[in-house]
Amino acid sequence: PGNLLESPLWTDPERGLFVQYFKANKVPGAKNLEEVRQFYINQVPLRRGCRYEDIGHLVSFLASSASSYMTGQAINVTGGQEMR
Cα–Cα distance between 82 and 4 in angstroms, integer? Predict the structure, then answer.
């Protein structure tokens, strides 16, 4: 999936990626964690992070008969964001 920006990986108050990126000045000019978070949201064309329900919808689809003819697919759940 894309960036689950609400997950503990990102939001942990001590070791989350928002904290790490803020301390490492990965977002120049960011004055707080919210500005770091907004920087990453702005990189997604749909203007929001991936949510757990986005992944759940894909799992539900894959478990349904609608996907019975699919084979060997990589399905991006990224809101349109591409790796650079």
Answer: 15
